[in-house]
Design brief:
The structure holds two protein chains of two kinds. By secondary structure, chain A is of the alpha/beta class. Chain A contains 15 helices and 14 strands. Chain B has a domain of about 220 residues. Classes of the chains: A alpha/beta, B mainly alpha. Chain B: This is ABC-type branched-chain amino acid transport system, permease component.
Chain lengths: ~425, ~350
């Protein structure tokens, strides 16, 4: 241990380099490992949007945005290391893109006064802003997704007495919707079968054998990474009707359905934002980012579902910065001001149209009590011939009568466990 | 010049039997302790604690535990991740069931629980050894992870199946939860490591350690000279489980704060700790430290050099890191099969003669 001291002093100097006037957005990405297929497009979209803002508008409110990328490999230990190594640089908001890392960071970031935006993942009950002051999961969360899937099924016909199977990643992420689906099953009278798939999910023969035996009418999937492709392939192998197979938004990208080819035709996935590259903002990305050679990735992911989601996350972060700049009257905001900006964020149709993303997502307003947004969920469907996803339903409300009590109960349990006084 | 026994007279048996009989070695040990306890806590920040020091300290305890079982007693175990999970979940259940008891005792009790579980899974070792025992402990690894995922009592029926460490204090200073100071968590783990290392060192150089080593070297011969194989093997499993349980408890409560069993305590953790003791040196307490340091520091150091100094893309650095760490492991095993501890021993021998070798 004696040997380490000089090295420690050196690195301490390195880390404490002078802080420049810029807005730091750490991107805890994963471009390696079994989840890279999902991590790469998201990280590309996130970085490219900020690169585009810097090139086109000279940053946000005149201050340059800087994306600090740190590779986590979807691994919580590396996630902690990334958090600690980037937070000293004035990080404004963390988007870990991993439910496990989000759980890890919730207490740490709250203590450090930095905001977390777990968009469509993370701890669902963080929607209760009274307890989770620094955690946001707008515009939709896992439980909205579960309810949205059930609502969609109900719009297709009566589901009482039908069998629904949940194929889920056996982790904090996959377990999230279980309670909601159980409550909904009591309310609407369908049978729920739980089928866990262990990390990383490359082997699912036994799970799909069970599905073949029990013949559920519908399958809902909460998967991520390589698990999705395998599940879609296995479903095709047992000739499960893809029309009745619904994935959460993390199981609905091009990567998940392309390997199964034509057999994946008709597979459905939930979403909380628009699909396709038919938005004016992509012309700007092409002009300012791809053509200048400053794209984060190979530039081949533009317009894919997860790229769009990364872009959407970056857009919401940038809008929150603008809101914070308005509230506090300073351009170079700090993490506490960023948090205020996120809490006062309002996304309207006009705003999205002005950003070149008309109708890309629902319009919503964040408040101190509600960090979860409206929870509007749409359904997309895969067209294997055209190789495109298309929206097949409107963004519609989920069953908040069921979800809100669950959010309140879970967040209050967390508050009691950690002795947090409810704010607002 | 260094490590010289000349002039270092021992006048009592206690002197003769001390852990570090050579004066220079002993002073070096005191200096390391003084730096670790007296200087680092004042220099430490969050980054250094969470990126290097806490994982190093905690993995060292785990490596000491596995080294007792595999290095000293010769029983190959691939269940380390599962046993660490036992420590973590035992600690969690104790923390939430008895919030008024000091976390210090919870961690020790978690070690005790793991010792019992580890002994139970050590029973097959009485009949089988080598690869077959490795497979039996591998079964323990998968069974334990499955159990903690399946039975919701272990995670207090939380919706996500995660366990979260609530805030607990030692002498009024929080060591778990969100509001911890780097120095407090560091010292808390360091105390456990120091005590574990001293206990392990003294166990292994005493009668118990000799029994273990006798079993490791040739179990039939050991039985003939009067070593009870059942007691020797099971005691190795128990002691090893105790240390591994402590490390698992600290890993969950102090280092990560929130744990999901499949991801954190999976099979890769078992292999990681096994690599640590193989690279560090089987049958050496110092080797446990060296192996843990090597495998904790190297990836982060490579990342710092690649991303922060050279500015390479993160994915390239992550891939290069795998290549370099893998290559170094192979090079090490070819160049020095007995690990870093053997290098250290050779260096010591050289230093005794330096600067006038024969």
């Amino acid at each position: 241990m004696k040997m380490k001291l000089p090295a420690m002093a050196l690195s301490a100097l390195m880390i404490a380099s002078p802080v420049m006037a810029d807005l730091v957005f750490p991107s805890l990405s994963y471009r390696t490992g079994p989840y890279a297929a999902g991590g790469i497009p998201f990280a590309d979209g996130y970085a490219d949007y900020f690169t585009m803002l810097n090139a086109r508008d000279g940053g946000i409110g005149g201050v340059e945005a800087r994306v600090l990328e740190c590779e986590t490999g979807y691994n919580t230990e590396k996630g902690v290391e990334c958090y600690e190594s980037t937070k000293g640089e004035g990080a404004l908001v963390y988007q870990p893109l991993s439910t496990g890392i989000t759980y890890q960071l919730i207490p740490k970031a709250t203590a450090d006064g930095i905001a977390i935006h777990s968009m469509g993942y993370g701890r669902t009950s963080a929607a209760n802003g009274k307890v989770f002051s620094n955690v946001f999961n707008y515009p939709a969360n896992y439980w909205n997704g579960a309810s949205g899937a059930v609502n969609y099924l109900m719009s297709q016909g009566d589901i009482s007495g039908k069998k629904v199977a949940l194929v889920y990643h056996n982790s904090a992420y996959g377990k999230e919707p279980i309670r909601t689906l159980e409550e909904l099953s009591a309310k609407h009278g369908y049978d729920l079968t739980l089928i866990p798939v262990d990390h990383p999910g490359q082997e699912q023969k036994s799970q799909w054998l069970q599905i073949r035996r029990e013949k559920p009418d519908y399958v809902i999937m909460y998967g991520w990474g390589v698990m999705n492709q395998v599940a879609v392939q296995e479903a095709a192998n047992i000739r499960f009707n893809m029309e009745n197979f619904i994935g959460i938004w993390w199981s609905g990208s091009e990567n998940d359905v392309l390997p199964a080819g034509d057999k994946a035709n008709g597979y459905k996935a939930l979403t909380f934002h628009g699909v396709g590259s038919d938005f004016p903002v992509f012309a700007d990305i092409q002009k300012h980012v791809v053509d200048t050679g400053s794209a984060a990735g190979a530039g081949d992911q533009i317009g894919t579902v997860l790229y769009n989601r990364g872009l959407y996350a970056a857009m919401l972060a940038a809008e929150a910065v603008k809101t914070a700049q308005e509230i506090h009257g300073v351009a170079d905001i700090n993490p506490a001001q960023m948090r205020d900006g996120m809490e006062a964020l309002e996304i309207t149709e006009e705003k999205m149209a002005g950003l070149g993303l008309p109708g890309f997502g629902p319009s919503f307003k964040v408040s101190c009590e509600n960090h979860g947004g409206p929870g509007l969920v749409g359904m997309t469907q895969w067209d294997a011939a055209a190789k495109t996803w298309s929206l097949v339903s409107d963004f519609s409300e989920s069953d908040m009568d069921v979800i809100q009590p669950l959010i309140d109960a879970d967040s209050m349990a967390y508050a009691a466990e950690n002795k947090i006084e409810a704010g607002c | 010049m260094f490590y010289r026994e000349a002039g270092d007279f021992k006048t009592s048996y206690t002197d003769d039997n001390q852990t570090f009989p050579i004066k220079f070695d002993r002073y070096r040990y005191y200096v390391v302790l003084a730096v670790a306890f007296g200087i680092i806590p004042f220099l430490i920040n969050d980054y250094w604690a969470n990126a290097f020091l806490l994982p190093f300290l905690i993995y060292s305890i785990a490596a000491i535990g596995l080294n007792i079982l595999t290095g000293y007693c010769g029983q190959v175990s691939l269940g380390t991740g599962g046993f660490m999970a036992v420590g973590a979940y035992a600690c969690y259940k104790l923390m939430t069931a008895f919030p008024d008891v000091n976390i210090f005792f919870h961690v020790i009790a978690a070690g005790g629980v793991t010792a019992i579980v580890c002994t139970a899974f050590g029973l097959p070792s009485l009949r089988i050894k080598g690869f077959y025992l490795a497979v039996a402990t591998l079964a323990a690894q998968f069974f334990l992870v499955w159990l903690f995922n399946k039975v919701s009592w272990f995670y207090n029926y939380s919706a996500s199946g995660q366990i979260n460490a609530p805030e607990r204090t030692v002498f009024g200073v929080p060591v778990t939860g969100a509001n911890t100071e780097a120095w407090a968590t560091y010292l808390f783990c360091l105390v456990f490591l120091a005590i574990s290392a001293i206990i392990a060192r003294n166990l292994t150089r005493g009668m118990q350690g000799r029994k273990w080593m006798a079993i490791r070297d040739m179990d039939i011969a050991a039985e003939i000279i009067g070593v009870n194989p059942m007691r020797a093997k099971l005691s190795a499993f128990a002691v090893s489980g105790f240390f591994i349980g402590i490390s698992g408890a600290l890993f969950f409560a102090v280092y990560l704060g929130a744990v999901e069993v499949g991801e954190v305590f999976g099979i890769q953790k078992s292999f990681l700790v096994l690599f640590m003791i193989i690279i560090g040196g089987l049958g050496s307490i110092f080797g446990s430290f060296a192996g843990a340091a090597f495998l904790v520091l190297l990836p982060v150091a490579l990342k710092l050099v690649g991303v922060d100094l050279l500015g390479w893309p993160t994915d390239i650095v992550a891939h290069i890191q795998l290549i370099i760490v893998g290559a170094l492991i192979i090079i090490f095993l070819i160049a020095e099969p007995h690990g870093i501890a053997q290098l250290w021993r050779v260096a010591k021998e050289k230093l005794r003669l330096w600067p006038f070798p024969h």
